[in-house]
Amino acid sequence: MGTVWFCLVALMLTVYVVLDGFDLGAGVVHLFVAHSEEERRLVSRTIGPVWDANEVWLIAAGGTLFFAFPGLYATSFSGFYLPLMIVLWLLILRGVSFEFSRHLTDATWVSFWDAVFFLASLLLAVFYGAALGNVVRGVPLDNQGRFFEALWTNFQPAGETGILDWYTILAGVAALVALTLHGALWVSLKTERELQARAQDLAAKLWWAVALFTIVITWSSFKLQPHLQASYSARPWGYIFPVTAVTALILIIVFRRNEGQAFYASCAYLVGMLASVAFGLYPDLLPASTNSASSLTVDNSKAANYGLKIGLVWWTLGIILATVYFVMAYRRFAGKVSVSSDEEGY
Amino acid sequence: MQSALAVDRLQFAFTITFHYIFPQITMGLALLIVVLKTMALRTGNEHYNRAARFWAKIFGINFAVGVVTGIPMEFQFGTNWSAFSKAAGGVIGQTLAMEGVFSFFLESTFLGLFLFGEKRLGRIGQWFSAMMIFVGSWLSGYFIVATDAWMQHPVAYSLGPSGTFELKSFWSLLLNPWTLWQYPHTMMGALQTGCFVMATIGAFYILAGRHEDYGRTFVRVGVIVGMLASILQLYPTGDGQGVMITRYQPVTLAAMEGLFHTERGAPLAILGQPDVANQRLDNPLTIPRGLSFLTYRAWTAEVKGLDQFPRDAWPEPIELVYFSYHIMVGLGTIFIAIFVIAAFLLWREALFRRRGMLWVIMLAMPFPFIANMAGWITAEVGRQPWLVYGILRTSEGPSPLVSVGSAWFTLIGFMGLYTLLGILYLFLVYREIDRGPEAGVVASSASVN
C-alpha cells in the first residue's frame, strides 16, 4: 500500500512539473521572445486560462503527501522551513503579478508586473530543482528522524549541509534550463509567425544547455548518492526511465521544426527524468546523509493501512474527475492564440 | 516572545485571518452569481448577464488573492506544526487532500472556462460553469470545516503504537456531528458577507446616482438572500453549534459567557467586562436565567462556570473568547434587523426611496467581516489549550527544530507581503466598482484565477 502511494504522489508531482513547468518556462522566456507589449500579452494569454488549474496539482500533491506519508510531510516541511516559505512567497508573487498586470494598460504598471512575473518564475524553477537536489543528496536526519537546514552553510554537499551547495545549485540551474526549454516549446506550440520563430530559435539554443546539464547532473547525482546506483543494479528494468529521458531529449531536437511533437517530447523528457529520480530513491523518501538507518522510507513514514485503502477509492474517483475537467478545459482552449481573436485571445 | 510556540501561533493567526477575508467573499458571491445567472436564463434579460459578469470580475480578484494566501495555510501544518502533523496527518490529511482533489480542480478549471470562454460556452454552459464554481467553493468549505471540526471534537480515530492518530472510520470523520452544525453556520456567515458586499455596492450606486438599475438589482438580491442567511445563521445553525459546545466543551461555553461561578438559573450576559483576576463580570447587563434556558431549555438548569475546571484547562485568554463571542452574536443580531427591515421596505416597494436605509446598508460593509472573524476567534481560541481537543495540547504541536528567529523571519515576511497584497487588492476592487457593470469586458485573465 505504501508503494502504491509512493507512485501516486510521485505521479502527481510529475504532472505538476510538466504542467506548471510550461507556465514557469513561459514566464522566464516571455521577456526574451516577445518584443512588443502586444506579444507579451499574447504569451501570457497562452497560459491565462490554465495556469491556476495547473498549480492545483501542487496543492493536491501536498495534501496527498500529508495524508499518505504524514511522517515525511512533517519532517521535510519543517526541515526545509526557509526554502519552502520562500517558495510560498514566490508562488504568491507569481500569481498576483500574472493576475494583476492585466487590470491596467498603463505601461509602467504592466512592465513592473512583467518583471516580477519573470523573476518569480525563474526563482521558482531554481528552487524546485534545488529542492529535488536536497532530496537526492539527503539531509542530516538525527536519530529521532528530524532535521533543520539553513539556507546555506559552506556550499559543500557533505557534513552540515545547507539547502544550497554546489550540487543543489547545479540541480537548480538544470531545472531552470529544462523548464525554460519546456516553456519556449509551449510558446512555440501556441503562437505563430515571428513570435513562434523566436521561441523556436531560443529553444534550439537552450537544448544544448539542457543536454549539457543532463549529463553533469546525472553524473554528479550518481557520484553523490550511492543509493541510486544500488537501486538500478538491483532492478535493472528501471533503466527504462533514464532511457526514456535521453530518447525524449534527442527527439526534442529532431522535431525542432514540429512544434507539437517537440513539446510532447519535452513532456516525456521531464517525466523520464523525474521517474528516474523516484525509481533511484525508492524505497527511501528522504535519505539521511548522516546514517542511512535514519532515512525516511515508505514503510516508516506511511499512514495506517485503513486510511490508505479508503484513500485509494476517493483519490481514484477525484483524479478521474480532474482529468475530465482538464481534457475539457485544454480542448476548449486548444489551438493558437492570436491578436485577431476576441479579447481573451481565443 | 521567547518561544517559537508563540510566534508559530501568531503567524498562523495572522495568515489565516488575512486569508479568510477572501474565501468568505467568494463562497458568498459564488451562490449569488448563480442566482443572477439563473435570473438571466429565466428572463432572457441581458441586464442580469451583465450584472453577473461584473460580479465575476470582483470574484476573480478575490479568488486570486484567496488562492495565493490559501496555499501557505496548507503548508504551515508541516512547516510550523510538524509534531501535530506527524501525529494527526493520517486523519486530517484525508480531508485536506480531498479538498485539493475534489474542490480545487473543479473550481479552478470551471472558473477558467467561465471567465475565458464566455462567448463560446452558450447560455446553459455558462450557467453550468457558475454552478460548478459554487459547488467547488462550498465543497472546499466543507473539507476545511470538517478538518477544524475534528480538532474541536475528534472522532473516528484510534491512537496508534507511536502516539499517532489512525483513521478508524472514513464516514464518521466526514459526518462528524460537530461538522454538521459548524459547516452550515460557517457558510451562512460567508453568504452574509457576500450579500452585504453586493447590497452595499448596490446601495452605493443608488445613492451616488450611478448605474441605478444595477444598484437596484444588487440591493434586491443581496437583501433577500441575506435575510434568509441571517436568520439561518441564528437558528438552527447557531443554536445547534451552541448545543455542541455546551455538550463537548463546557469550559469554553463558560468562557464565552463570562460565567465564572456555577449557577442554577444562570443569567445571559449581554454586556459587561470579564474581570478574570477577581473572577466576576464588571458592569453586567444580563437577562436573568437566560443562559440556562438557551443551553438546556430549562430556566433553572445548572450551568457550569469556570470554577468547575482546573485553571490549565481554561481557554486563555478568557477575555478574548468572551469578547469575540459577544461581538459575533451582537453583530449577527444587528444583521437580522437590517436585512428584515430592508426586506420589508423592499416588499412595500419603498426601499429605494429610503436614503437613510440605503446609507445603513452601505455603511454595514465592514461588519460581516468582523463578525466572521470574531466567530472563528471564538472557535479557535475557545479550543485552547488544546490543538486536538482533550488529547493533544497546543504546546505539543510546533516543529521542534524551527527556531524563534526563523519563525519571526517568515512572520515578518508574510506581514510585508500581505500588506502589499491588501493595498493592491483594495485598489483593484475600487477600480472595478468605479468602472461599473457597463464597462466593456476587460481582458481580465484576472479572473482566471
Give me a quick take on this structure.
Chain A is mostly helical and 346 residues long.
* Chain pair with largest interface: A-B, 74 and 77 residues
User: How many structural units, i.e. domains of chain B?
Assistant: 1
N to C succession of SSEs of chain B: HHHHEEHHHHEEEHEHHHEEH
Figure out the total of helices of chain B: 13
In percent terms, what proportion of residues of chain A is strand? under 5%
- Summed over residues and divided by their number, the pLDDT of chain B gives a mean of 93
Specify Rg of chain A, calculated over alpha carbons: 20 Å
User: How many strands of chain B?
Assistant: 8
Question: Using DSSP, what is the number of strands of chain A?
Answer: 2
Helical proportion of chain B, percent range:
over 70%
Shape type of chain B? globular
Query: What is the helix tally of chain A?
Result: 13
Main beta sheet strand tally, sense and closure of chain B: 2 strands, antiparallel
Quickly give the structural class of chain B.
Answer: mainly alpha
* Helix proportion of chain A: over 70%
Assembly annotation: heterodimer
Strand content bin of chain B: 5-15%
User: What's the end-to-end separation of chain A, in Å?
Assistant: 44 Å
Mean pLDDT of chain A: 90
Task: Please describe what this structure looks like.
- The complex is a heterodimer of chains A (346) and B (449).
- With 346 residues, chain A is mostly helical.
- Chain A has one domain (2-206, 282-332).
- Chain A is built from 13 helices and 2 strands; from the N terminus they run αααααααααααββαα.
- Chain A has helices at 2-33, 37-47, 51-68, 70-79, 81-101, 107-137, 166-190, 193-224, 226-234, 240-254, 259-281, 298-301, 305-332; strands at residues 284-286, 296-297.
- Chain A has a two-stranded antiparallel sheet with strand order 1-2.
- In chain A, helix 3 crosses helix 4 and helix 7 (166-190) runs antiparallel to helix 8.
- Chain B has 449 residues and is mostly helical.
- Chain B has one domain (4-262, 304-447).
- Helices cover 72% and strands 7% of the residues of chain B.
- Chain B has 13 helices and 8 strands.
- Chain B has a two-stranded antiparallel ribbon. In chain B, strands 3-6 form a two-stranded antiparallel ribbon. A two-stranded antiparallel sheet of chain B has the order 4-5.
- In chain B, strand 4 and strand 5 (280-287) form a beta hairpin.
- Chain B is globular and about 65 Å long.
- Chain B starts with a helix and ends in a 14-residue tail after the last helix.
- Mean pLDDT of chain B is 93; it is low at 441-449.
- Chains A and B meet through helix 2, helix 3, helix 4, helix 5 and helix 13 of A and helix 2, helix 3 and helix 13 of B.
